[in-house]
Design brief:
By secondary structure, the chain is α/β, with parallel strands linked by helices. It is built from 16 helices and ten strands. The strands form two sheets. Strands 1, 2, 3, 4, 5, 6, 7 and 8 form an eight-stranded mixed β-sheet that branches. Strands 9-10 form a two-stranded antiparallel sheet. A hairpin with a 3-residue loop joins strand 9 (372-375) and strand 10 (379-382). Helix 3 packs across helix 15 (387-404) and helix 5 (127-137) packs across helix 14. The protein is globular. The N and C termini lie far apart (76 Å).
């Protein structure tokens, strides 16, 4: 009898290894609840297969290059367009299809914008608004080709009454978001990471912060820490960038929060109960195996401290991605999707010289690439689908989950906590009645932004 083809045998071996690993883990670690399950939570066999999935959005901390932030914003705009087309709703927004979001650095700014509650209790901004905001920042002298470009851009966020963040968020706080929001920073006072969380904010004023301060904290550079205080003044943080806290990729933190937050996500027991999209900040540090004769170029100089920080942050983000991909196992690509450029489409210096429309076109072009992704028991390989194709396919899964929920009996998949003592702010001045109509975008126009010198 002829032996099976090597490729087929390799696939079977990987599948067998995964099944053995899953059996051992479910039997000896979690008492039969399932792979990646949280102890004490009923498994799918108990509650039924169609109990729903929690939808999670994670956005990396964007590095010193302008293409990084624009890539994330362009990916979100593409995802929103796909969601509108799939759902047949031209007024749909990204936040309508996600139950939790996490973002670090400029990714934290994007997540906060997309989940900020408007006067009709729905998300105030669209993904197109967020992309416009990032592109408009390009013309404010914030981007640059050198290592100081990111510092100059984030400095724009901390300049008094005319700060772009003040115009975008007003006095809104973590409580004023439509769903749980997580934003990391590093507290220099305690030498430890700090995670801004809406779940904590609704429990105590001492953990409720203004969104503009949260964004300033996660974007702060190490040489200019942002001093932020809670709304009651009892909690103070000397914040450095969220990327410094080894959370430049906040996907793992978001998953952990969902699986252990039983008040808001009572049925989430493991990765089988999640739909996660992680948007990377730039090019992957990983690469496929080089071909024969390929030689590694020898650098002409040693990397600068800023470049070493960037390389370290990218390496940590890739390790988080690989760990999460392995946790999802053979559902990776369906339940978990990673969006990341395979290579920069334009240098930082060249991109900073482009106008907003051309810069957005360059960022959108990066979405046509196929990125390097992790695969269980196989290391890293070039994805079979482009980022565009991944976003379109994931949008279909999000819409399916959105449409199934009203018809699903029993416990709710998501039960978002409300603040015990809500405060009125610029984001919650509507009447107590919930409005049903769509709101027009309240994003400051590029013209109004340009009328202020920050």
């Amino acid at each position: 009898m002829a032996s099976p083809a090597p490729a087929l045998a390799d696939v079977d071996l990987g599948k067998l290894s995964y099944e053995i690993f899953s059996l051992l883990e479910s039997k000896f670690l979690f008492g039969g609840a399932g792979i990646g399950s949280v102890p004490g939570t009923p498994g799918r066999a108990v509650l039924g297969e169609d109990r729903g999935r929690v939808r999670v959005l994670a956005i990396d901390g964007c590095g010193p290059g302008p293409g990084d932030a624009l890539l994330a914003a362009a990916a979100l705009a593409r995802l929103e367009a796909a969601l509108r087309a799939r759902a047949g709703d031209p007024g749909a927004r990204v936040a309508d299809f996600f139950d939790a979001a996490a973002g670090a650095g400029a990714g934290g700014v994007l997540a906060a914008m997309l989940f900020l509650k408007g006067e009709d209790r729905r998300a105030r901004y669209t993904a197109a608004d967020a992309l416009e905001f990032m592109a408009a920042s390009l013309g404010k002298g914030g981007w640059g080709g050198d290592g100081g470009g990111w510092r100059r851009w984030t400095a724009l966020f901390r300049r008094g009454e005319k700060s772009p963040l003040r115009r975008v968020f007003g006095d809104a706080t973590l409580r004023d978001t439509v769903a749980p929001l997580l934003v990391p920073c590093y507290d220099l006072a305690t030498s430890a990471p700090f995670l801004f969380s809406r779940a904590d904010a609704v429990e105590s004023d001492s953990f409720d912060f203004r969104l503009r301060d949260v964004c300033a904290a996660t974007c702060a550079s190490g040489s200019a820490a942002a001093a932020v205080r809670s709304v009651d003044g009892r909690t103070a943080i000397a914040a450095a960038s969220g990327c410094v806290a080894a959370m430049g990729n906040p996907t793992a933190a978001a998953i952990t929060h969902v699986l252990h937050n039983k008040q808001e996500f009572p049925l989430a027991a493991g990765v089988d109960d999640l739909l996660v999209v992680s948007i990377g900040s730039g090019s992957s540090s990983g690469a496929p195996a080089p071909s024969a004769g390929w030689r590694t170029p020898i650098p002409s100089r040693s990397p600068s401290p800023a470049e070493m920080v960037r390389l370290t942050a990218e390496g940590v983000a890739d390790m988080v991605d690989q760990a999460v991909a392995m946790a999802f196992g053979h559902t990776c690509g369906r339940n978990y999707v990673r969006i990341q450029a395979a290579s920069p489409a334009c240098s930082g210096k060249a991109l900073s010289s482009l106008d907003a429309k051309k810069a957005v076109a360059v960022a959108d072009g990066m979405l046509t690439q196929r990125n390097v992704e992790a695969e269980l028991f196989r290391g890293r390989r070039l994805s079979e689908k482009s980022n565009h194709e991944k976003l379109d396919a994931f949008a279909a899964e999000l819409v399916k989950e959105h449409e199934r929920r009203p018809r699903r009996p029993g416990l709710p998949t998501v039960a978002i906590k409300q603040a015990a003592t809500p405060r009125l702010s610029s984001a919650t001045t509507a009447s107590s009645a919930t409005a049903t109509g769509r709101t027009v975008s309240t994003m400051p126009s590029p013209a109004s932004q340009g009328s202020h010198r920050c």
